[in-house]
Structure formats: C-alpha cells, structure tokens
Amino acid sequence: MKIALAQLNFIVNHFDYNRAKIAHAIEQVKSKGVDLIVFSELSICGYPPHDLLDREDFVLKSHNSINELAVICKGITAIVGAPSLNTNPKGKLLFNSAYVLSNGIISSIHHKTLLPTYDVFDEYRYFEPNSEFDIITVKGIKIAVTICEDLWDDQPVTSSFARGRLYSKSPMDQLKNLDPELIINIAASPFSYNNADRRKSVFVNNVHRFGIPVIYVNQIGANAELIFDGGSMVLNRKGEILEQLNSFSEEIKIIDTDLLESKAAIKDDGDAEIIRISKIYDALKLGVSDYFNKMGFTKATLGLSGGIDSAVTLAIAADALGSNNLRVLLMPSKYSSQHSIDDAVALAEKLNVKYDLINIQDIFDSFNSGLANIFTGLKEDITEENLQARIRGTLLMALSNKFGHLLLNTSNKSEAAVGYGTLYGDMNGALSVLGDVYKTDVYKLASYINRNEEIIPINTIIKPPSAELRPDQKDSDSLPEYDLLDRILFSYIEEQKDPDTIIAEGFDKAIVLKTVRLVNINEYKRFQAPPILRVSSKAFGFGRRMPLVARW
Amino acid sequence: MKIALAQLNFIVNHFDYNRAKIAHAIEQVKSKGVDLIVFSELSICGYPPHDLLDREDFVLKSHNSINELAVICKGITAIVGAPSLNTNPKGKLLFNSAYVLSNGIISSIHHKTLLPTYDVFDEYRYFEPNSEFDIITVKGIKIAVTICEDLWDDQPVTSSFARGRLYSKSPMDQLKNLDPELIINIAASPFSYNNADRRKSVFVNNVHRFGIPVIYVNQIGANAELIFDGGSMVLNRKGEILEQLNSFSEEIKIIDTDLLESKAAIKDDGDAEIIRISKIYDALKLGVSDYFNKMGFTKATLGLSGGIDSAVTLAIAADALGSNNLRVLLMPSKYSSQHSIDDAVALAEKLNVKYDLINIQDIFDSFNSGLANIFTGLKEDITEENLQARIRGTLLMALSNKFGHLLLNTSNKSEAAVGYGTLYGDMNGALSVLGDVYKTDVYKLASYINRNEEIIPINTIIKPPSAELRPDQKDSDSLPEYDLLDRILFSYIEEQKDPDTIIAEGFDKAIVLKTVRLVNINEYKRFQAPPILRVSSKAFGFGRRMPLVARW
User: SS3 string of B372-409?
Assistant: First the structure.
C-alpha cells in the first residue's frame, strides 16, 4: 500500500485556503497511485483554533469543508483532522477528530482520547475525551488511527515535579485488542528545542510496546507563539526511523508499506549543540515569516542599538522577510557610545537594510521640560532611563503607523525573566522574536549567523552588554553574569525547581533568591509583553500562567 | 448543630496570612459553640493559584498549612479547601480537595469531581477528577461535601452555542445514594453581573432534585482580573434562601441547623437594573482596592481628560483607595477643548484629588521635528493621533516611576472591543478598571456615582464622546452610536452569535460586519492590554482566548 504523509502549513479559520490545499494534495497523490493520504490534526481549521471552537459558524464551516473533501476522495482514502459534534447530550460539545474519507463519503470518525491540558494546550476546554475505539482497514491493512497526545500517555518531562503519566487510560491499550498492523498518528505538536528527543522516544516506546510500525504526520507552520516544525516520521516495527520529513517546511512524502521491512534506518549526525541552535534559528525564521504571511503584512521595523539582541533579531528578520522589507531606526542619546552607532550602521549596511538615525536628546529634553514643575528638586533615577526607552518605543511606533511596518520586539528571555526592560518602551512590538531565547543562546545564534562570514559585527558580540541608559551602564551592574543567570533561570522556569533546590546544587544563595524574586515580581510586565515565539519547553506567554496578584 | 460560614478574603501564595486568618476564624467561632466551620475552595492557598500548582514547594506549603490547622481543630470540625496529591501514579498529580479537620487531625479528604475548564477556569490543567464518593457525619448529621462546580452539572449559559451539561457524570447522583441530610458546597465563584441569577438557579435546582438544604460558602476578594463576590447562601429544603452573606466583603455567619425549618426566606427587592449597576460598582471598587492591597501599593494615577471614562475611573479609585492616594495628570493638546479641561479640573477638585496640568504641545512638536526627515512630504494621519496618546501614556508612566503611583487604565469595553485606543498610549496601565464595562454601562455608572450629588460634572455626562486627537473629532465619526454598538458587541462577544444571526435579528448588515471585523482584527491590541477587572460572563483577557494569527 502506498501512503502519503502530507505535512502542510494551514491558516487558522481560513477554510477556503486549507480545504483547497488539502484537496490539491489529494489530487496530486491520487495520480501517483497513493491509496491513503494522511493530514495533520485539525488540519481543516488550523491548529490551535482556541476559542473559535466555541463558535457555531466555525464548527459548521469545518463540517462543511470536510463534506466537500469527502466528495473528491474516490479511489483514495484520506485522513483529515477536524472538530466533530458530540452527539451525547452530556459532556463537552466537541470531539477532536480524525475523519476517514473514502468512496466519496465520511466512512468513519475517530476521536482523540488523551486531551493535553497543560503548558500551551487547552484541549479539555473544548473537547470531550473519546471512549469508543475502532480501527480502519485500508487495502487489507488494519490501522489504528490516533491523534497526537493519544500516544503520549507516558511522556518524558522537563520539570522535576511534573509527572509523565497524566492519564488514567491509554487508547492504545484498547486499540491493540483489535490487532492493528500499523499505527497512524496525526499531530499538531509544536517545536521546542528540548522536544525532539522526547518525541522520538515516545514513538520508539510505542513501537516497542505494540510491535507495529508508526506513521506520524505533524503540522508545520507558525501561528503566533507556536511554531510547528513538522518532522513527520515513519518508524518500522523495530523502532527505527525510516523516514523523517523536513523540519520547518512543507513536504508530501509517499511511502510504500511493502518496503518498510527492507528499508535502512536514517542516521542522526552532526554536533547536537549546533543542531539545537540551527533549529532555534530555523524556528524563529519561520515564526517571523508566518506571522507576517498569515496576517497579510510584509514590512517590519525595529530599533537597532548596536547591541546583540537587535542585531540577531534583524538578521533573522532579514532572512525571513527580505532586507528590502525592513526599515530600522537608530536612536542614540547622549549615553549612547559611538561604537554602538558604528556597529548598528555596519550591520544595517551589511544586510542592506534601510536605516534612519534620530537623536532622541531634543525629545528627551522636551519631556523633562514638561515634567520640570512636577519633578522639581528630584534627582534623576529609573524614571529618566525608562523615558528614553519610551521615546524610542514611540518613535518606532510612529514609523510603524506611518509606513505600515510591524515593530519587532528585540528583548531576550533573560531580560524578560528578570524584568530588565521598559514596559511601553523597548518591550513594544507586534512580535517578540527572542523572548524565549536566553541571552547565552542569543550569542550562540549570533555565531551561527556569522558561521560563513561576519554579518553581525564582531564588536557587537564581544563587548559587554549595556542598555546605555545612563553613563557607563553595564547589564552586569544590576544583574548576575548571563552565563550564571541563565542557568538559574532555566532551573527555576523550565525545570520548576524550588529556590532551595537550586541553592543546594551549588549556586550562591543571595543570587538565586534575588533572581527568583525578580522573576516573580515582574509578572506584571510580562503580562503586557508581545506574543513571544516559543522555542523552549516553558516559554513566557500562553503556556506559563502565573498569578499576577500573589505574595512572593 | 451550629455551622459557621466563613466568607473570607485570601491572598494567593500567602500561606502565613491565609493560615492565620483561618485559624483566627476557627478560634473565634469555637468560643461561640460552633460545631462546624466551613471555608471556601482552595482557601489555604488562595484562588486561583494558576501554575503555582505545578510547583512542589507550593503544594508542600499547602500541605503543611493544613496540618498546622488540623492541630487546632479540637472540639470543632473545619472544612478547608486545599490541593492534595493524587496517590494513583496515573492521572494528574493533584486533586482540588476539601479537607475535613477534626479531633486534631485530617479526618477525611473529599475531591472535586467536576473541573471547570472553560472561560477563566483551567482546573483540568492541574487536577484529576474525583471518582470516589463518601459523606461525613458531624453531630449526627450526614453531610455531602461538594466543591463549587460539583453542583453545576447542569448550568444556564449565556452563549447560544454553549451547552449547560458539560460533564457526563454528576457527583450528587453518587452522593445521594449515601442519604445526606445536608449539602455543603465550598466555592471560588467569581462575580459577573449576569451570574447572580444563574448561581441561585443552580442551587435551587439542586435542592429540588435532592430535597435537602444547601450551604454555600464562596470566597470574596479580587485577584487581578477575577473578583469574587462572596454572597454565600443557606437554602432550606424548599429551595428558599434563608441567609445571604455580604457581597464584596468578608463575613462570618453562624447558623443553627435546628432553626432552618422555621426561618423565613429573605426577599429580593429593588430595581434589577439599579442592583446590577451598583454591583458592578462594588465589584470594580473591590477589584481596585484588592489589587493595590495585595500587591502592597497604595497610590494611583491616571490621565484625566474631562471625558466620561476617566471620570468614572477616578471616582471609583477615589472610593477604593482614598483621594489622598491619587494624583492625576491633565494633558491637553491643541485639540483639547476648554470645557474638557474645565470638567477635568472640576472633578479633581470635587474629589479632592491632586492634579497637575502638562500641555503636550511642545513634546508633540519635538517628536514631529525628530521625525521630520523621515516623514517629509507626508500628511498627518493616525500616526499623529497615536503620537499624542503615546506622549500622554509616557508622561503618566514618568509620574508613576518617579512617585510610585500605579497607572490605572481608563479604557472601556466598547473601545477595547473595536480597537479604539492606542497601544502604548491610552491603553497603558497596571490595571484596567472599565475594560469589561460597555460604554452604555459607563454612563449608568456615572449616574450611579452621582445618585446623591453631582460628583462627575454633568457636562462630562451629556457631551458627545470624543478622543480629541484631531479637530472636532467625535467617536461617532468612526464608530456606530454606542447604544447600537454595545448591543451588537454583546451579541457577538457574550452571546457568541454569528454575524448572520445578529443581522437576522434586525441590525444593519454593514454595521454588524464592520463591528465584528473590528473586534477580530484588534485581537493583537488586546493581547498587550492590562489585566481587566472582569464583571461580565465574557471579559477580554484570560477567559477569552482567541487566536492571534487567523484569517477573518
């Protein structure tokens, strides 16, 4: 039997587009003798649809689109993800379903059993868990159709307190009684740089438990915070990976089940850390380009300071959107060093990005004049530092408003964690590119960008980080060195370790307590931050829901 | 038997405070011969704890606090809400539990069965549903202990597409087999102005189904967006309300179960609409004061424009925080009318609030000079309107930074819905007071505030709304009249009706489609809005999760 894995990029709520894309893929592979084509989870409506699932017209459009697709499924079977109505009058209104389309009709519907409701996932908000199990037969082969989390009943976790067995039932324990010869898993599994190995181990473990091959079809494409990397796979009954589809781009791959036994496993190679950084880069690039493409925007701006964060953001944006779609501002103050301006100019010129320079001193002076009566006799403090950042944020928004360039935010995760940034100032932006990338990884991204030639000026990489908001300011004046800070942050945020545990591992007590306190008391700032492209297992944003009002 | 209903205000993660408050209440009522005291859901840790439930130290502190409380429960039984560990190795790690403390120990633990996972609730994110049922006996009376949603297995809903029976099982169907004589329900049920009747009907329906009295103990107090109103109740076996505790303030009420039969039902009275507005007012006042109290802040600022929104916000803030804790800015531009300035001054003086006036023209000019090279030959547009709003937002943040006044946001729900506001400008603020109040209700709040004397100048109430960002601008230039707009918005947002349905109800097609489109395309603005005090059944913020990237 020939099976096509259709790893495609869908747009949430764009039924015409998604349906046409699916229909095109069906027609395309039908002409190549494919018997079964498999699309990803909720492919007809795009994932994640969030609260659109609460709307009747959305569910109706999904339903109608599936019916239209069924008509063209003659001489081929298609598995398409879509919500379906729960006909039981009790329980959630919907199921998260896989529709099997063949002979021009919906031949069966299979519902998701395990509904991820943690981190960025809210599936029990909308869906009733499945409790009835059946398999399908295509060309005489019995297939268990599962949806994403259905195979994740025992999963590796990053946090020390989290558990891997989140469900009391396992759908495969039911399905195995029906003697399937193949497991198909349709998914919308987002990228995180520590997820690739977890995913692989989940599939390998399932193969080992049930002794049958697995075909995994994942969505690709970014939808705001979430970046779906694709990387669809075919595993044989030994748990070897025979095929792995592209990461971060669409692909339709046709396999022949008769050849599964004889095919050689693909090999992992390359340095793990280089692969990790290159994947983060590719993820961010896709995150930026899909945000713009799917929203119908083309042009971007940002504030180029001469520092590492804006440099890396610009390089990624130039790659994602094209240099000719970028226009940036250099906005020095009297505290800005000449080398910062020079570095910013050098980068803009290297990348062929249009730039303008606005010295903010006069605007800063006008604010100080306006505030003089109120601030009489008071000395300069954080107020004036924030004021500079807010003037820059306002200038960037003016450019954005006038010319239609979306503002890219350039803050990194280390800063976002400890609140080292100005709300309504440098925290502005339609999208945060680096908000889930720790500062130490921002440096690694810079080196990766420079791997073939010096794109980001070496001076930007080697100089001590500074916000340049007061004379001779350095980040290390108020924060621990980033190498140390990032390790503490990772322990506290990703691994969810208690401060006492982190201290017991050998970190300085005062630094740990200060860092943890800064993370906690800056929840209010992150509440109003732009959407952050998620590349880790625990990003700030939708997947991390901390109380805003609490005692720390 | 004497039962105390302890309707108290807890602080999330403040175990010392919450434990001391609970212990104090226990000691207090013990001296009055009370047999059983009942606290609200998750009282030991505060509700909602959100992702703190994923942290080991948080769960451990809850556990230790419960153990400390158990020790003092001698000669009295206490029911206290807290998370507990799920000892089954499969399933979510925690239960949402009611601990029964008596004879100095934890005598039993009862878990929540129905886990609300919709709107602002995320309970299945953390908790395993209960599957074992038992009752307790206190002074010979058999009591079914339930937790909030456990009695909401069949609930009235606002949205036309939502269903009221979200669960396939009902805990009371199990518990009734154990012949309870009384139902106790501990809750953390947030206020919404359309929720009071729903709540009442849920309890009355339960009484009618099971023919036994219900004692309902709800949390009071605000935690960021969510405002818990208390309003704890005692219902007799006929479904009559015998006691109703304070709304929006703490109260400990002692009742005698022997007297339940003979006591007369309390009567609802008053004009429903006046009660609705007064409750919204009380809710917002509590929302403001608790945000400040629990965060350890006292002082607030805002931009006073002479318009209705900032006037109502200021009146509420003055009531919540005290006039002496407020300091506001008037920031006229050349487009500001003299009557706006006069109205703002009149209100500040009436409320005894310190105010300063900063004309923003010079700052505006300095921005225009800075941008002149870039904007050469281009005419004024929305850019310059936003610039004014951002200058004001920046000035307010400067005052906030310098003096420690938190900025209150003054946007209303109608504006937030259609994106009539400037990000990083008038959308700034630590807390949005009116962001869940439609403009038409803002006017009603103004009348309510003026019910005894003219506090808000009548001119502020009667003049046509205007942002005053260009000559002779009126809101009605770009928006439908608010009376019409708000009805369309309520249909689309609260009732989740499709545009076609709204049009079929007689609204103008072009206006409906324009309004709905504005709501959808402004998701990105609301993403970065401050936390909004929630008073409706569907507020912008945590309870409304729409995709940011989607096709509309």
Answer: HHHHCCCCCCHHHHHHHHHHHHHHHHHHHHHHCCEEEE
